Structures are given as C-alpha cells and as structure tokens.
Amino acid sequence: MEQEMELSAYFPVWDQLSARQQNRLAGAARIRKVEQGGILQEGRGDCLGLVLVRRGRLRACSASPEGRQITLYRLLPGDICLFSASCMMRSLQTEILLEAERDTEFWLINPEVYRQVMEESAPLANFTNELMAGRLSEVMWLVEQIMWQSMDKRLAAFLLEEAGLEESDTLTLTHEQIAGHLGTAREVVTRMLKYFQGEGMVRLRRGAVEILSREKLRQLAG
Amino acid sequence: MEQEMELSAYFPVWDQLSARQQNRLAGAARIRKVEQGGILQEGRGDCLGLVLVRRGRLRACSASPEGRQITLYRLLPGDICLFSASCMMRSLQTEILLEAERDTEFWLINPEVYRQVMEESAPLANFTNELMAGRLSEVMWLVEQIMWQSMDKRLAAFLLEEAGLEESDTLTLTHEQIAGHLGTAREVVTRMLKYFQGEGMVRLRRGAVEILSREKLRQLAG
After folding, report:
1. Fewest 10 Å CB contacts: which of A1, A18, A109, B183?
2. pLDDT tens profile B126-137
3. Tell me, what's the ipTM?
4. CA-CA distance, B158 to A184, in Å (whole number)?
5. What's the rounded Cα separation, in Å, for the pair B203 and B196?
6. Which of chain A's residues have a Cβ under 8 Å away from the Cβ of B133?
C-alpha cells in the first residue's frame, strides 16, 4: 500500500490505471541501491528494468570503444529512465552507460510487467510516450550543441548547470571529469578553464572549480 | 474506403482500432505534394501534422543559425514522421528542418485528431511509442557517430548508404551537399574525396561521385 502511494508520485496517470494494473506494477517494483561511481548498465544487451530515482543522481552517457564519454542527461529524484528497460520496446536499441554520480536509491520495475500493463493501458502508453519524447528532445538538443556550439560556450553552460544541480558555486570536479561530460579531451578543458580564470569567471583549485561570476559565464554561454 | 485501405498499410495496428477511430483518422488525412527541394517544415513553431510518405523522399535535418546542416534521417515511402507533429506531444520540442529530396507525395494527418485517437487507443499509443523509440535510437546512433567516429569513416558509410538508397554507384551529389548531410565543411569533404579517389575507391566528376569499390569503402567504414 505504502509502495503504491510512493509509485503513484512518479506516474501522473496512476489514478487512470485499474486497481489490478496498479497492483501489478507495485508488485513488480523493488528498491535497489548503488554507490557513487557504480555502473548500473553498461551496454546494449542489458535490460535492467524501469529505473525510478528515489534519491541520489544518475548519469546516462555514451562511451566510445576507447572509453571516452559524453553525458546525455542526468536523472534526479522523481525521474524515470527508459533506456534501462530497452527490451520493453523492439525499436529502442542504444548502448547507454548508466552511472551513479551520487549514492543512489531507486525503484526498479520489471520491464516485462511494465510492457504488459502499457500494452493494455492507453494512459500509461501515452505517459511513456511523453517520457520518450522528452528524452528525444534532450538528445536532439545535444546534437545541436555538439554540432553548432563552440566548446567554450558548452563549457560555460555546463558549469552553470552543475552549479544549479549542486546549489553551490564550488564544483568538486576534475578536468578529466568535465571532459567526460562534454565528450572532449582533458587538455581542451584545462586550456579553456585557464582562459576562464584569466577572464575572472572562475578560480581553479586542486580537484575543484570555483565560479566567481555566473553573470560572465551566462554571457559567454549565450 | 480506399483511403482507409491505404492508411491501414502504414499502421500495423489499424485492425485494433475501432471503426469510429479508423474513420476519424481517415477523415483527418489529406494528400499533399511537395517538389524536390521544397521545405515542409522550418522550425520549432511549425506543427504541420503527421506525415506519411507515399512516394518520393524526405530528409530531416538540424540546421545551425548560420545555415550549416546535418542529416538526422531519411523518410522513405511507408515511413511516418512524428517531428512534423510535435504539437501532438507536450515534451517533443525540437527544431527540425524537413526537406523534400525528391518530388514527394504524402498523407498529412491532422495532429489534433491523431492525438485524440491515440489518447483513447492503447494500440495506437504503443505503436507511436515504437516509432518514437526508433527515431530516438537513430539520433543516439548519430551522436555516437559524430562523437566517436572519424569523418573519413562517416563519409565512407554515407556513400554506401546513398548507393543503397539510389540503387546506383553514380551519386549525383555536390561536395557541398555531402557536407550538408554530414555536418561538416565542403573543404573537408573535397579533401577526403580526393584521398578516396587516390585509393581507387571513387572517381570524381562534376556534380557527381562514382563509386569504384564498395568493398574498399566497406572496409574503411568498418
């Protein structure tokens, strides 16, 4: 019962499901934990299930064969991850790495049960459609960023986004980690951060970047 | 009646719709034509409707403010375009340019009617989900290509794909057009094509590229 209460918070359409459908979803949900740095999913074959973040933070990224990475999007408490349940849909074929950026607790819903309920419930199918459309829009936005934005603008936007997520102007991130978010080389990040420092936008410390002027970063990010 | 017959070919779930739903969709569909080079949709605000390609070929691409382009995917006869009906879904927010690569004829379904039928029909909603998942997978694949593949491999793969689409080894494409598909500069394409020619993979002619060895291109594309 308590379980259903909590799950209903993730699904705005929960009340439009039958009692039987609600029970099936709740019965197929388990709480799981993963420590910071842990990998939930590594490749195409994986089909963990539908991930609903309770607390912590996950990062979905694409990785090159050589181990370079680019962040696709973040999953915060309340967010649902479809890519971890790609076996739910025939046409969803991607290789996404799912990593815990913080100690994270999440609901894991069996993908086969979810698929079955979705097949008979128009509200759940339409809700899932909206989730998918949201992710598609984010990935499209990323394509635009990669293709048409210079790296200094992307770095400025990234630092502002991080400051928002962390609610802090001090970001404990190495240059290597920042490069892994933006899909570039560490040297490129180091060079740009030094330029940012020269312009009074940030101060660089060991393993951290301190934002001195959000305003200047915003102007650069455009 | 004939209209319904034809529409049913696009929707594998047609038989799972009620007669009323079938009538509503058929009644909201119109045949439209666009000439080669014509633009169906230019930006975020547009919401043309659901596009179902009857004959010809469309190209969906992302464009920079300066007019550079990259092809996201092609729409061939039998394909359905969701991006032209983004008002159907709250979360679908992208700026996609839709261009006719050939003289094209298509069904256009009113997006509001489609949304209403989808809201009450689980089969149609799930089918739309699969369409969306397919596009999402294609765009994810593109991100991987842009990020982790070198331009020579992408060019080789592009030439092979074109040869497949055209069913010909002679591609009437300018270097400028190829650059617009791959999201790069014309000079880069010219340089690489000359290298390909030196390796005996292609022969360059005015306004055309002739493929001499699909096998060598395949090896390069990997």
Report:
1. A1
2. 999 999 999 888
3. 0.86
4. 24
5. 8
6. 89-92, 132
